[in-house]
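Internal tracking record. Fields below are filled automatically when a chain is submitted to the structure queue. Please do not edit lines marked as system-generated. If the sequence contains nonstandard residues, flag them in the REMARKS field before resubmitting.
Queue: standard
Priority: normal
Entity type: single polypeptide chain
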Amino acid sequence: MKIINIIVRAGVFSVCTSLGLLSLSSQVHATTDLEQGLQAQSNGELVSAAKYFQTAAESGNSEGQYQLGLLYAQGIGIEADFAKAKILIQKAADQGHILATEWLGLQNLSAAPAWEEEEEEEDPEDDC
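SYSTEM-GENERATED OUTPUT FOLLOWS
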């Protein structure tokens, strides 16, 4: 009976170890995609950079999300889509990415508050 328990425990340990290694390997792959994206970007290969950043972003890499978001915001190497840019950069900020948080803050500051909009001039004849 003890042997069966040992075998079962070893099997569970093996499954847990395998799952942990798979998770780690996906993060390593995301880092590789990120590095390749940054290299492509520095070489001016922006379409390739966008593809690498896309893969890294889909793996949950915050830097990949941020970089892809910037490309979407600027329409560089990929069709401009400000809504997608904000979603990606927000995901990066939610993971603690400082530059993503700063970018979102700047976007909020640049949007004119409703109280700063010009009010329509009133017709002086309406004061009667």
